[in-house]
Design a protein that fits this description.
By secondary structure, the protein is α+β, with helices and mostly antiparallel strands. It has 5 helices and 10 strands; from the N terminus they run H-H-H-E-E-E-E-E-H-E-E-E-E-E-H. Strand 4 and strand 5 form a beta hairpin. The N and C termini lie far apart (118 Å).
């Protein structure tokens, strides 16, 4: 058997280091993008980061209380609804606009009640039960609106609320957010609650 000489078995460390350095440079060149590629990556990252914000803005949602009045569907933002109260002991009030149908006593608080169909100068059509009052409230105003039936609560995208169609001419568009699916008329509660003609200021002792 032949044996290798010590010189043959010696490791050429400078050559090993040279090859390792070449391999390291090759790896860095392979994984380090060039200037153009870097710009492309940064642009793609910026678009990816912006996309959730755009989607959130496009999908802004509102929660609505949907109700029926004279066989027509209306809705109002739940954030303005304090409670739904049975329509009992409605007291007509003289010398008020026609849309103010009267007042009710809600635990010692006198609340004026309006008929939104009269408020919007819409024709009175269809049978109505008028057994519910939806009480709307802001920081400085409270009043109720008549309802036959509370359908329920639903959340929709704001993009689903469209401008009122021409067939709703005569309605006071300033008090509407718009019309959603199935011709549901979405009221602008903030605008209604800022109309000082609606409220009746009166208190009673409990």
């Amino acid at each position: 058997m032949k044996t290798s000489s010590p010189a043959a078995r010696a490791i050429d460390w400078p050559e090993v280091h040279r090859r390792l350095e070449g391999l390291r440079q090759l790896i860095e060149q392979e994984w380090t993008p060039g200037e153009a590629q870097t710009r492309h990556i940064l642009k793609a990252r910026a678009q990816a980061l912006a996309r959730p914000l755009e989607t959130a803005a496009a999908e802004q949602q509102i929660e609505l209380i949907e109700f029926m009045l004279a066989q027509e569907t209306y809705a109002v933002q739940s954030s303005f609804v304090r409670e739904v109260h049975p329509l009992t002991d409605l007291t007509p009030l003289p010398c008020t606009p026609p849309f103010v149908v009267g007042i009710v006593n809600v635990r010692g608080e006198i609340v004026s009640v309006i008929d939104i169909k009269k408020f919007f100068d819409l024709p009175q059509k269809g049978l109505t039960e008028l057994n519910k009052v939806i009480i709307l409230q802001s920081s400085d105003m409270t009043f109720g609106i008549l309802a036959d039936l509370i359908v329920g609560v639903q959340t929709i995208a704001m993009s689903q609320v469209q401008p009122p169609p021409p067939t709703l001419t005569g309605i006071r568009e300033a008090y509407l957010l718009g019309v959603a699916q199935d011709r549901m008329v979405v009221l602008d509660a903030a605008k209604l609650l800022s109309d000082r003609r609606i409220v009746v200021h009166e208190t009673v002792s409990t």
